[in-house]
Amino acid sequence: MGQKSKPNLPPAKGKPAPKEKEQVVEPTGPTVEDLFATLDKAVKADDFRNIVKVSDQILAKEPNCVEAKHCKVVALIQENEISQALQVIESTRIAGLDLTFQKAYCLYRIGRLPAALIALKGLERNVNVLQLEAQILYRNGDWEECISSYETLFKQHKVVANDLKTNIVAAYVVGGRAAEVPSLMETLKVHPRSGFEIAHNAACALVEKGEFAKAEELLMMAHRIGQEALIEEDVPEEDIEDDLAPISVQLAYVQQMLGRFEEAIGSYNAILKRKPADAPSLAVATNNLIALKGSRDLFDSLKKTEKLLEKKDASQKLQLAENLENRLTMRQKEALCFNRCLLLLHSNKLDQAREFTSSLSKTFPDNPIPAILSASLLWKENKAQKADELLADFAEKHEDVGKDVHFVRAQAAAAAGNYLLAAKCLEQITSARNKPGMIATLVALKSKGGIVKEAETVLDEAIQYWDSYMGDEDQTSVLESILQEAAAFKLKHNKMEAAAKVYERLMKSSSPVVKSEALHGLVASYAYTNPDKAAEYEKQLPPLRGVSGLDVEALEKVPPWLLNVKRGRAAEEAGEKKEHRAENDKPKKKRKRKPLYPKGFDPANPGPPPDPERWLPRKERSSYRPKKGKRNQAPIRGSQGSVAREKSGDMSAAASNGPGPDSGKSVGGKASAPEIPKPTPPAHRGKKKGRH
């Protein structure tokens, strides 16, 4: 314990108070000027650790030094100490120091995207702010606003950096505007050969448009350009593979989409074997390989997906691993999580799947797939009604994304034989109501459900809808196909007049095939309602090959019984021909094959026949006789001498009662012997060790 300090007493009256001696503090260590000189050297050398160290030394001497605090924050960000940098920023209250931009960047890096956007709102929209804002919007999935920020950079600030051009192309691709990428690249004056990153993004645009063959060529070119550029920069080989990992994964995906599955599996396995440092590429390769395998190697697939996800309990939202959460797009995150749930369903781990779907619905509340997965669980448990109610409730709350849910409901209802419910579910998808596939499905479902009139109404409404697109050639072909189906449907269900009207419209078609079918349909439909018209159209039909000079009136006058006689004669003639053919076709004699004997066997001297019981175990054969031994004898009792006498008595009894004339008839019976008095039990003796 230290000594207690004495209290300061007031000085005595009339005497002056003694003055305390002033202590002169001698400076220790380098001065602030020296530290700033050291800091300047560290900044020029990009020695960020030393910058942090020297900045701390300056702040120890001058806590409100603006330059030192600013240098420390920037150095921590450069060292990827983002959380520590944010902590320093939030604890700093220095006049004249504004670290709002650095704070927004730190919030962006740790994934707090809404907070980062709020932090940027009060700043001037200069080049750095717009660039960071565009990156935050890209990561948050606000593609249109992201593109708008990049366009402001190019138009107002005349930024021409290649990395920004690469970023805006990427925003167009993931934002659903891949078709505009070629014109955008012309505006930006960039070409796929400008760099491997821009070539990669251009290939991704082709993938989005479904042009996989062209995308493969562009990806191979991007890989080659990137390899050459990185080798020129003296980048180590391992780092080259890490930098080109996204291109390799995209190339494997293109192989998969082109149907070259074995090649794609080999490419994915090669990527996973290398274990690239780029975590998103590794995650995408893992997910795509699992999707290729399907229900094979479920245990291995589950094990791989576990490494990509972090989840503490069912009450929390799903979260990807730390190195993936802020680097994957929303589409990629959804694919990883949904595939994990499908694996649990395929593995029949229903409890885990139920818990997982609960977390999925919290993480992706507006996505229909968690609801569909929950319904799949209920169907597995034979709770079809609950599953349909769950999906119907979701579709009612999310009308904008309810289309997929209604399709699933319709499929489940049709599989269960409830065709009218399936049709009702499909009718709620108004955006696809008049598409050819939907029309055909609705007609088939309503016909199977027994409401033919409503099925006909579906066709009539579709014809009215497509009549408004008569000017377009593509739409005209769709209308003609619907008219053909409508006419055939009406003809099949005896709606002759209505069918004839539709066929009359088809006669105006420019296609000779359509006109020919319509002509046949007109003859068939008018034959019942207007025979004169049917005769007129019949004259336009081309003559039948091989049929000439046929008198139709004479054919009609032939009595029915004569037709039956002719048919009978034809049958008799056919039978006679068959009998004649049967006589000519005598059955061929089968050639007898010579028997195959074992090696060394002489059929002339076969010897004794083999034992029929040779396949049975030895103990189960009738000829088996067990060896006589002492194993089944009665236990020894009494003294040693009495045992010998007992044996001799038994033997004599057996001799005196020898076998009689009937002794061979009974098997297993006890031989009668005179009673032998039991010997008295001997005195207790201890057993010798080792004897039993």
TrEMBL record:
The keyword Endoplasmic reticulum applies. This is Signal recognition particle subunit SRP72. It is found in: Cytoplasm; Endoplasmic reticulum. Its main location: cytoplasm. Component of the signal recognition particle (SRP) complex, a ribonucleoprotein complex that mediates the cotranslational targeting of secretory and membrane proteins to the endoplasmic reticulum (ER). GO terms for biological process: SRP-dependent cotranslational protein targeting to membrane. Residues 1-27, 568-692 are annotated as: Disordered. Belongs to the SRP72 family. It holds the Pfam family SRP72. Residues 573-626 form the Signal recognition particle SRP72 subunit RNA-binding domain. InterPro entries: Signal_recog_part_SRP72_RNA-bd (IPR013699), SRP72 (IPR026270), SRP72_TPR-like (IPR031545), TPR-like_helical_dom_sf (IPR011990), TPR_rpt (IPR019734). GO terms for molecular function: 7S RNA binding. Residues 569-586, 611-623 have a biased composition (Basic and acidic residues). One of its GO terms (cellular component) is endoplasmic reticulum. Residues 587-596 have a biased composition (Basic residues). Keywords: Cytoplasm, Endoplasmic reticulum, Ribonucleoprotein, Signal recognition particle.
